[in-house]
Structure formats: C-alpha cells, structure tokens
C-alpha cells in the first residue's frame, strides 16, 4: 500500500481505482466479471463510465483530447467455456475456477504441455493467465458443445497415458489436504463409465482441451527484465513484484501478445478487435504488437491512444493539440461516435450471426484488473435484446 501511495504521488499509478490486493501466484483468484449491456446502451455506458473515473481521479482532465473523449475499446468474442485462472510456476501448471476450486489435477495433464510450449520464448517466467477452457474436436474441426470438458480431459489423458506422453510434472501431487479441489468435492460424474478404455483412448487421439487467453495478471522470474525490454517498458512504469493487475489493460495486452506463442487449437489469444478513439478499427494482434508497433506521426499509436499517456503528460501539450487535429481526419465527434458504434455492430454480426459464437465482450483498455468486480467490461448476447431464450444448456438424466 505504501508503494501504491508513492506511485499515486509520482503520477505513475493507474488513473482508475487501484486493486490493493495484488495477484499472488498459487493463491486462488476471483476473475474480473462483465456487466450486462445491450446495443442501445453499450457505447453510452462505456463512455460515461470512463468519464466518471476521469472526474473522480483526475478532475483537471477537462480537455477533449481524443483518448479522453472517446476511450479506446476492445471487442472480444464471448466464449462459451469454463472460466479459469491458470498459474504457471517453474513449469508446473495449476488452475482455479471463479468459485476458487482447483481443477489442476483434472486439466493440467492435458493442458500443461501446450501451455509450456506457448511460453517457450520466455521459458524462465512464472505467470498467471486469465481465460476460458473449451474442448476441441479435431475430426470435425470445431469446438465441442459446452459441458464436455471433463469427459474430453479424461479421453485425452487416457490417450496420452497409452502413448507414454504424460509429463510427470503434470501428474505429481500438487495440492495439499486443505485445498479445495474438484477431485475431492465432485462426484465422479466427469468420468465416462459407459465408454470402454479402448474407446476413450480412440477419442482422446482426436479430442483435447484448449485454453483461450484474454488477460495476464502476473509476471515474475529471470526472464522478466528481458520481456519488459522487448515490450519497450521500463521497470519504473511496471513497478516491483510480479502482480501487474494495476497496469492498464492496454499494457497487459501488449505483454500478453509478446509473451505468448500461440498453439493452434491448443493455446490461443481470444480474437480481439480494437476500436480506436478516432473511429479507426484494427485487429488486436496488430494493435498490441510491440515488435512491429503501429506508428502515426512519429509516435506509437498505443501512446497516442492512451488515456494514461495524456494524463501523465507523456506527449507535450503543444504537440498534442496538433496531433489531435491530424488524427481526427476531419471527422466530427458525431461521425467518430457513429464509426465506433458501427464497428461494434459489424463485429457482433460477424462473430454471432455468421460464426455462431455466444456474444461479445467490450473492454476499456485504460482499466486495471479488479478481482471479482463488474467494472470496465461489458457483455451482450442475442437474448439480451429479446425476451425469448436463444439457447438452453441442459443435461438429460
């Protein structure tokens, strides 16, 4: 808390309300949650929320520079999987659900190897990732319907054991007797008693779990300095310790895209669209790249778009006035608002109506990560716009 107070005094702390409790490796963590929203309210809600926190923490930020007037947003696919916080320490993978139950013994034998491969660029790092676990059918080349993760984990583990491909680090005893784990509290319903071992092995060859990542909460270890140098960050702006939840989402995303080598259909970053403050739209992969950053008028686009950079005077005010005029491309505020709303609508139409995903989640990139709270993230689905149910998850007994 003393360090946080000092960062606030120095002007380097998050502009938003900080999370006092840091992310701690090996402790169960409650993930940040989305507010329910709709097409009609979404852009107004995100804008007013942003303005509310600006006035609360930086009442002098009254100028209408683009990042202050139109906060940069990400639009991400709302996944239909199991929310999971994944901890990786010295290569060992553990994971907890949003209700603080450990699923490591069930899922780590299947996901551990591909998670380690995804971090191969920085092998000497301990990390905490936030994302969702889904099941993949490699025969049909589609996701398995929701609710089959436990069964698929069993099939894949049986196959890996048959092929002598289980990694001992994923099968050793992980949790002590005081930890709440799925293996101790659940019935054996996740074990498929009706299918022979031979059939389970056969299924496990073509079915496996995949982890879709959308945030990173913790970074520590010998490779940390190299990672931050590769991202172009100084330790003075990151701070000491491993927890990075008080960094803005923009920087957390930059770290995530730098650290993760995606493994197709095994470990991937959730597809993301960035809606910029001048109405332009770009993919998350391009926008958050630190190795090949988007440059505009001699500055990285992420600096020009950053609410924090404006508040902390990282761009001289006389330059900012000229840059702001150029970046608007002659667009009025109304035109920019319309472009941003259309970008969200087009993304929604593509991922929901064309590809059949569950919905869309929109996030303010200036925001920190707040455990268990519904702030700065907004979700909407087709059934939020109608009284009729779009789909129902059921189990037949």
Main sheet, how many strands, which sense, barrel? 6 strands, mixed
SS element count, helices: 16
**Mean pLDDT score:** 88
| Head-to-tail CA distance between termini | 52 Å
Quick one: how many beta strands? 14
| Largest sheet: spatial strand order | 1-14-13-2-9-10
Categorize the overall geometry: globular
Can you walk through the features of this model?
By secondary structure, the chain is of the alpha+beta class. It has 2 domains: 183 residues, no CATH class; 172 residues, 2-Layer Sandwich (D-amino Acid Aminotransferase, Chain A, domain 1). 37% of the residues lie in helices and 20% in strands. The protein contains 16 helices and 14 strands. The strands form 3 sheets. A 6-stranded mixed beta sheet has the order 1-14-13-2-9-10. Strands 3, 4, 5, 6, 7 and 8 form a 6-stranded mixed beta sheet that branches. β9 and β10 form a beta hairpin. α5 packs across α8 and α9 packs across α11. It is globular and about 70 Å long.
Task: Supply database-style keywords.
six-stranded mixed β-sheet; alpha+beta; D-amino Acid Aminotransferase, Chain A, domain 1; 397 residues
At a glance:
With 397 residues, this protein is α+β, with helices and mostly antiparallel strands.
């Amino acid at each position: 808390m003393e360090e946080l107070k000092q960062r606030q005094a120095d002007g380097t702390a998050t502009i938003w309300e900080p999370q006092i409790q840091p992310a701690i490796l090996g402790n169960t963590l409650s993930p940040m949650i989305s507010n329910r929203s709709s097409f009609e309210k979404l852009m107004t809600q995100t804008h007013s929320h942003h303005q509310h926190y600006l006035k609360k923490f930086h009442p002098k930020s009254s100028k209408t520079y683009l990042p202050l007037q139109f906060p940069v947003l990400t639009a991400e696919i709302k996944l239909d999987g199991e929310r999971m916080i994944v901890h990786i320490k010295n290569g060992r993978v553990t994971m907890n659900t949003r209700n603080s139950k450990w699923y490591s013994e069930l899922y780590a034998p299947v996901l551990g190897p591909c998670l380690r491969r995804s971090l191969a660029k920085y092998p000497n790092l301990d990390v905490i990732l936030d994302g969702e676990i889904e099941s993949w059918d490699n025969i049909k080349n589609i996701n398995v319907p929701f609710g089959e993760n436990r069964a698929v984990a069993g099939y894949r583990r049986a196959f890996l054991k048959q092929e002598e491909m289980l990694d001992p680090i994923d099968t050793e005893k992980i949790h002590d007797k005081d930890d709440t784990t799925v293996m101790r509290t659940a019935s054996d319903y996740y074990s498929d008693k009706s299918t022979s071992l031979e059939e389970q092995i056969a299924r496990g060859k073509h079915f496996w779990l995949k982890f879709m990542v959308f945030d990173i909460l913790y970074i520590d270890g010998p490779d940390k300095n190299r990672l931050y140098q590769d991202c172009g960050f100084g330790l003075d702006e990151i701070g000491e310790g491993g927890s990075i939840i008080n960094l803005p989402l923009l920087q957390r995303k930059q770290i995530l895209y730098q650290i993760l080598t995606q493994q197709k259909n095994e470990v991937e970053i959730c597809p993301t669209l960035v809606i910029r403050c001048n109405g332009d739209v770009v993919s998350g992969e391009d926008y958050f790249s630190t190795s090949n950053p988007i440059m505009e008028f001699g500055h990285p686009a992420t600096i020009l778009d950053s609410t924090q950079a404006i508040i902390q005077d990282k761009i001289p005010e006389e330059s900012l006035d000229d840059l702001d005029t150029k970046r608007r491309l002659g667009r009025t505020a109304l035109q920019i608002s319309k472009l941003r709303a259309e970008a969200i609508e087009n993304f929604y139409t593509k991922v929901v109506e064309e590809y059949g995903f569950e919905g869309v989640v929109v996030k303010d990139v200036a925001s920190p990560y707040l455990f268990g709270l519904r702030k700065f993230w907004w979700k909407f689905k087709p059934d939020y716009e109608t009284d009729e149910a779009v789909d129902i998850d059921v189990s037949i007994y």
